[in-house]
Design brief:
This is DUF1450 domain-containing protein. InterPro entries: DUF1450 (IPR009910). With 79 residues, this protein is an alpha+beta fold. Helix content is 43%, strand content 28%. It has a single domain (4-75), classed as Glutaredoxin (3-Layer(aba) Sandwich), CATH 3.40.30. The strands form 2 sheets. The protein has a two-stranded parallel ribbon with strand order 1-2. Strands 3-4 form a two-stranded antiparallel sheet. The radius of gyration is 11 Å and the shape is globular.
Length: 79
């Protein structure tokens, strides 16, 4: 099975989503990719954001982001 790619904007990581990135990076089924920009600047500047299959996953804090990422993966039968 190919790893599931989770994308992060480096600016969003610097603004606090790094904690979520670090937690998700522990999962061997996930591949974490960082980009200079993910083209979600409007939400990225206000929330913690991870992108899966082009879909932004948005949360108010890093712990919630991790939870929402796993919820998305389960709902879309990716794990």
């Amino acid at each position: 099975m190919n790893p599931i790619v989770i994308e992060f904007c480096v600016s969003n990581l610097a603004n606090g989503s790094q904690k979520a990135r670090a937690e998700l990076a522990k999962d061997p089924d996930l591949e974490i990719v960082e980009y200079g920009c993910t083209s979600f600047c409007g939400i990225c500047s206000r929330y913690f954001v991870a992108i899966i299959n082009g879909d932004p996953i948005v949360a108010d804090n890093a712990d919630e982001l991790v939870e929402k990422v796993y919820d998305y993966l389960e709902e879309n039968a990716l794990i």
